[in-house]
Design goal:
The protein contains six helices and two strands. The protein has 239 residues and is mainly α. 26% of the residues are buried.
C-alpha cells in the first residue's frame, strides 16, 4: 500500500506554479454551494399564519436553517450592534470549509487520475487554509479600523504599554493557528482513511469515515466561530 502526501498537479501561469488540483476541487465546491443556493431560493414560500401548507420545504427550508444558524453564530460572537454586516462573510467561510471538508470525506477523489498529482479536498492544502486565515485577519482588522479609526491600535497598549509585543504577537499567531488547525485535522483524517482503505478496504474504514464527517463539520464550525470571535473582539468597546 502507498499513501503519498503533497502530490500536486502544477499549472504554470507566467513564472508561477499553481496547484491545479486545488483549483479544480475548489471550483467544484463553489459550484455545489451555488447550485444549492439557487435551487433553495427559487419559488420562495413565505410562512403565513403558521399553515403547514405554506411552510418552506426542501432546499428552501435547508437554506433558511443555515442562514439562521450563521446569523445566530454572528450575533453571539460579534454582538447585536455589528453582527448583521458580517453574516455574509462568516456564512461564506463556514459553507466553503464545510462543503470542502465533506467533499474530502465523502468523495474518493484519488480514483480520478490526473497527469500527475492527485485530487483532494481544498482544505487538504496548506495554501487554501492559509488564504482563509489571512482573509479572516484582514476582516477583523477592517472591522476594528472601520469602526474605531486609528484608535483601534490603542488595543495594543491596553491595559498596559509593556504588553505591546505580546499583543502584536497574538495578532500574528491568530492566522497561523487558524490555518494549521484546519489543515492538520483534514490532512490527518484523509491519511487515516487512506491507510485503512489500503489495508482493510471493506468494513473497518466505515466508522472512521463517519467520524471524519463529524470532525469535518466541527472544524468548519470552529473556524467560523473563531473568525466571528476575532471580529467581535475588534469591534467591542473597551472602557
Amino acid at each position: 500500500a502507498e499513501v503519498s502526501v503533497g502530490q500536486h498537479w502544477y499549472w504554470q501561469l507566467g513564472g508561477y506554479s499553481l496547484h491545479g488540483q486545488v483549483l479544480i476541487t475548489s471550483w467544484i465546491v463553489v459550484a455545489v454551494i451555488g447550485v444549492i443556493c439557487l435551487l433553495g431560493t427559487q419559488n420562495l414560500q413565505p410562512v403565513s399564519g403558521g399553515s403547514a401548507a405554506t411552510a418552506p420545504k426542501g432546499l428552501q427550508n435547508l437554506t433558511e436553517y443555515i442562514t439562521e444558524f450563521i446569523r445566530d453564530l454572528a450575533k453571539t460572537q460579534i454582538g447585536e450592534e455589528d453582527y448583521l454586516k458580517w453574516v455574509p462573510f462568516l456564512g461564506t467561510i463556514f459553507l466553503f470549509i464545510f462543503v470542502s471538508n465533506w467533499s474530502g470525506a465523502l468523495i474518493p477523489w484519488r480514483i480520478l487520475e490526473l497527469p500527475n498529482g492527485e485530487l483532494a479536498a481544498p482544505t487538504n492544502d496548506i495554501n487554501t487554509t492559509v488564504a482563509l486565515a489571512l482573509l479572516t485577519s484582514i476582516a477583523y482588522f477592517y472591522a476594528g479600523i472601520s469602526k474605531k479609526g486609528l484608535g483601534y491600535f490603542k488595543r495594543y497598549i491596553s491595559p498596559a504599554a509593556f504588553l505591546l509585543p505580546i499583543n502584536i504577537l497574538e495578532d500574528l499567531t491568530k492566522p497561523l493557528s487558524l490555518s494549521f488547525r484546519l489543515f492538520g485535522n483534514i490532512l490527518a483524517d484523509e491519511l487515516v482513511v487512506g491507510v485503512l482503505v489500503s489495508l482493510v478496504p471493506l468494513v473497518v474504514p466505515i466508522p472512521i469515515m463517519l467520524l471524519g464527517l463529524f470532525t469535518s463539520a466541527i472544524q468548519a464550525l470552529v473556524f467560523a466561530t473563531l473568525a466571528g470571535a476575532y471580529i467581535g473582539e475588534s469591534v467591542e468597546d473597551h472602557h
